[in-house]
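A reminder before we start the practical. When you read a complex entry, don't treat the lines as separate problems. The point of joint prediction is that each chain is placed relative to the others, so the output describes one connected object in space. Small molecules and nucleic acid strands, if listed, are placed in the same frame. In the example below there are two entries. Take a minute to note the order of the lines before looking further.
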Amino acid sequence: EPEVTQTPSHQVTQMGQEVILRCVPISNHLYFYWYRQILGQKVEFLVSFYNNEISEKSEIFDDQFSVERPDGSNFTLKIRSTKLEDSAMYFCASSLLTSGSTDTQYFGPGTRLTVL
Amino acid sequence: AQSVAQPEDQVNVAEGNPLTVKCTYSVSGNPYLFWYVQYPNRGLQFLLKYITGDNLVKGSYGFEAEFNKSQTSFHLKKPSALVSDSALYFCAVRDSGFNKFYFGSGTKLNVKP
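Here is the predicted structure of the whole assembly.
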């Protein structure tokens, strides 16, 4: 069964450094997402991406964050100048159908980001 | 504003007994409701969803959920729990007009032999 994959599984970085989290969505899916879960808190939506542009983003997704689909398979989340409060589990997800549909989002295993 | 509440941080059940994991929601439009399960060191796995139609939805691994519009609830159920069902369960809602999911805080299910 196809799965969303994410690398690395754990990333440790120093405050102020840039990190790139990588995801490979399910191959025929068209919509891609990033969510994050701060330890002990809810899973929160960050951004959705379709047709090489952001289709929706939350108030969390400020100028510090950016997303990119650099090739036909990868979907990345870049965090510039990381802060301590960026420490969280970051989940990538993908779905086949269009925004606003009833389609299911399939999630990857997550990348645990630790900012020291 | 869209939101989901899972009132129980933890549910303890004996193997073979029925289980219920509670979820209530608040959306401005028609709700699309989902349940996901998270095993240790794994991503969120889709269990089932309610979009329209029958209020009782059947999903993976013998789980089902009942949509109750008047109570704005979408409780997850299973008639006979297994030890392997022990995991973290998340309820999520999506407003019909939007793309993003709103997740509950999660409920840890412990099934004891």
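Discuss with your neighbour: Chain B has no helices and twelve strands. What might explain this?
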